[in-house]
Amino acid sequence: MTRLTWQGNDRNSLICLCPTCRENFEITGSYRIRRANYRQTVKEICTYCQIRMGYDYYVTPVSERG
Ligand SMILES: [Zn+2]
């Protein structure tokens, strides 16, 4: 039996993204970005650019069929 993959939350990548880098991910349309913790108030260094500050996000690749 073939099942389309449902990836659980544990497959998400937790990374810190500043607003600019988050937007870069979002515009690709290849990732789903979700705040890891809406109560987070302390910004951390962005994992991506390591310049600006941002919050933690779950970045989940959107699997395209085909
Ligand atoms: Zn950044």
Q: Report the radius of gyration as a whole number of Å.
A: 14 Å
Class inferred from helices and paired strands: alpha+beta
Instruction: Name the overall outline.
Output: globular
Task: Sketch the major β-sheet.
Answer: 4 strands, antiparallel
**Topology, number of strands:** 4
Outline the structure in words.
It is built from one helix and four strands, in the order E-H-E-E-E. With 66 residues, the chain is α+β, with helices and mostly antiparallel strands. It has one domain. Strands 1, 2, 3 and 4 form a four-stranded antiparallel β-sheet that branches. Strand 3 (44-45) and strand 4 form a beta hairpin. It is globular. Residues 5-9 have low confidence and may be disordered. Zinc ion binds at residues 17-18, 20-21, 46, 48-49, 52.
